[in-house]
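Why run this: before we spend reagent on co-expression, it is cheaper to look at a predicted model of the complex and decide which construct boundaries make sense. The entries below are exactly what would go into the expression plan.
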Amino acid sequence: MSKRTDSNGYTMVFAVIMVLVVGSLLAFLASSLKPAIKENERIEKQQNILYAMGVNENDNSNANFVSTKVAGDEFKKYITKQLVLAGDKVTQSEDAYLIDIKKQKANAKAGKVRKLPLFVGQKDGKTFYVAPIYGKGLWDAIWGYVSMDENMVVQGAYFDHKGETPGLGANIKQRYFMDDFIGEHLLNESGVFQGITVAKGNNDPKNEDKTDYEVDAIAGATITGDGVSAMIKKDLALYVPYFKNLKK
Amino acid sequence: MGLLSKKDAVLLTDPLADNNPITIQVLGICSALAITAELKASIVMAISVMFVLGLGNVVISLMRNIIPSKIRIIVQLIVVATLVIIVDLVLKAFAYELSKTLSVFVGLIITNCIIMGRFEAFALANKPWRSFLDGIGNAVGYGVILIIVGFFRELLGSGTLLGFKVLGDPIEKTGLYAIGYENNGFMLLSPMALIVVGIIIWIQRSKNKALIEEN
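The model came back. Tokens follow.
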């Protein structure tokens, strides 16, 4: 039995029409929704930076940002300076938070100068320095914001990911993991950068030792944890010269 | 008789037990292993699949007479991928927080073999309303297993349910932990999901001998 739909001609025509319809539908949707999505991402960046310096609405165990409606105003209120470090030059820019870290990393690889954004915030009379970090987890990109004081002692951290395994690697954005970083030292006593390693079996589940350069790992998320250690080591090390200058 | 005739009702109830997509047809195992370390993720996945499978089945069923048989698998794949991407885009624009939670599931939904399996086995040969019921039934059957596995893995692996510490605090040593109970970290790893699914299959077949295949 041969049906009309079995002929090669029909199949070709169907395929072409289907691709055209689906392609233009998706292209139309993607481009018409793009401004709204971009805006959401912009606000999220502000929320992330504020979260790292402790401006958030955390309850007992959940991580909550300041609401999207007030994020812009809060950002203006708390972030006093947005700096861009490029080589030895330090400039101020209102849009430093929009710098694409991934692009800058690619620039550095291609031998160009990498722009490093740094956000200086004031809260309760304390100064926070918030730096973005970017790296790779098990499946896809992971990134975050770490806020430090002038001695590079971590004051807060926010991590996020694109596609880590739910319940395992995805838990890097849970309070119990992020809060462990608070108070950890990045530099040793003689001022050499050590980073923070996400370590298995560091025998310090309550994370009381703040100068061991280690936090407790998440069970079942070894590679994501290693990714977090790596991005902290690589990206935050770039800010060491700035902090050394600060002290002079 | 209300909304559903007896024949239609079977479409909803059959996949829940005697023709369950996971325990009987052994479809959708990959996602069942990947995302059941937490109860919340299991529930989110169950709802997402219900939405995509219900809608996808209807779309495929409406197109069933015009889809060329030579490229039907590709057409099915395009339909499910398009649906999922549309949902993802709309969520990103209007419900950003929710889309962040779902983002990782998007890829998993597209590759879920239950969806392709139902398109191929049912929607291509049945009317839209019956296909819709079949989609919802299979998604619920899939979701129930996911939620059972997620329940045990989160409870025994992390000592929590939906993030609440139901067994006490493992670090402060309260509740069950005060008398020496420890979380079983192995429950968080995928192999244990396979074992839990295996136990469910075992229980189900020992209750209903008709399900046991003859060799």
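Chain A has a mean pLDDT of 88. The radius of gyration of chain A is 22 Å. Bring this page to Monday's planning discussion.
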